[in-house]
């Protein structure tokens, strides 16, 4: 069902038609000298990025589609409560009239202004299958010296595109996008240091006015900084990268500097061979509680599961601290399963070549890591549990969200304590990985050099956006492949991306797909074969594998999930 735009848009659109009439009656007209001066900085996104604009995480600059004569356009992908807005504050004159125009394509696209001091205006289109111009106008108030111009889509709608945005009228005392000169390119770009996951850079500022610098990694902008140095993080070990830098100010962006190359150092972190896992993994959760699924001793888990996550570690009153002990209800259901038997079973699985990790959180988990102290508490407590029980690593399944900065710090501390064999997996909900700015996606990129596997839960979700901007429904092959594509295109290695699915229709409220369809999704991602209507632009033969909730529910269903998916994973290269 398409949304009904709020009434304020219809009311303001009417006002936008009435204001110019009132202006003429009062004799207020913009000087013809300003008619062709675009006050917006980077209104056509000709810099190849969003310099000059403040944009949401769902916004990017693309080379197609673009408006006639342009090389770039804005692409905005709304998600959840984010309408993919880009905005810009522009200096204006009081008691003056302005015209705002822009070319848009897509469903429910809004162009408007705020902070005018009189009546804020906007214009919108419910559907533009080709480039369509939106326009509006406004008059500033007696004391107004700046206004905010914005462009956005609508919640949960597909990607929209915008180009050739223009604001004309008398420039304010602060100037506008049409005046001045863009800076020259920075010089002297130098690599000042490398680690297994980062490269440090420095450069020399150009002459003239510079607001900041955009840093490019392999031709893609990855950061904007105010100074003449930056450390690019989230890189893969033993990998060569190329970097360049461009300066920008209120007028625009300079050309990029000359490129430099840097190779990160080697590391045996969780994402590499140090984890001891095969190239393609079937991971399942073993339930440390009873809920209708078949209760199992850990030793009863079949060898088709390469990686077993014990669910769940819990919290106590100390911020960030994790605790774990075998659930008494499960022990009773299994006729007196003891903690020592559980520890012995961990060793049994490991002797078969399986790995066992502790999952923290779950639906009811309330562990919070949001400062340096709680990060330290998390790392030290999980390290103690690993030493006590013999776990091979940790799974982060905090459904109340994560702090990407401090959780990354905690996991890096843990990896330093345990060593390069530590396995680290993540189990976000779909809403947490729609874009690189979402919390779990940002965390995954922050720990890319030590991350083993991210398994987004493609269930209990509803409809979500895929990497192509289209909306897909859970329970379909397209949902799995198009959402996995977002992670694959967002900077994660295919060898770190897995698909999270329910083991049976009883295991989740929604989103169950047959195991054979899971195999089709793997085939689509690995070889662009057996796809639905969504076909990825490239193949990902190193796609890591599949996670399922749970081994116990799979046991209740005769292990249909493992018996179908595990043999297929073994055929992948």
Labels describing this entry:
28 strands; 21% helix; eight-stranded parallel barrel; five-stranded antiparallel sheet; 573 residues; alpha/beta
Q: Please state the structural category.
A: alpha/beta
The percentage of residues in β strands lies in: 25-35%
Per DSSP, the total helix count is 10
Q: Let me know the average pLDDT.
A: 86
Number of strands: 28
Helix content: 10-25%
Q: Segments where pLDDT lies below 50 for 5+ residues?
A: 1-35, 175-179, 267-273
Spatial shape: elongated
Strand ordering within the main sheet: 18-19-21-22-23-24-27-28
Largest sheet: 8 strands, parallel, barrel
Rg of Cα set: 27 Å
Distance N to C terminus: 42 Å
Structure description:
The chain starts with 6 loop residues before the first helix and ends with a helix. The longest helix is centred in the first third of the chain and has 20 residues, at 7-26. It is 21% helix and 28% strand. It has an 8-stranded parallel β-barrel. It has a 5-stranded antiparallel β-sheet with strand order 1-4-9-6-7. With 573 residues, the chain is α/β, with parallel strands linked by helices. It contains 10 helices and 28 strands. The protein has helices at 7-26, 328-333, 339-351, 372-389, 404-418, 439-446, 477-489, 515-527, 551-556, 560-569; strands at residues 54-55, 59-62, 73-76, 86-91, 97-106, 109-114, 122-125, 128-139, 146-152, 160-168, 187-194, 199-204, 212-217, 220-225, 229-232, 240-248, 260-263, 281-287, 307-315, 322-323, 355-362, 393-398, 423-426, 453-457, 464-465, 471-472, 497-502, 545-549.
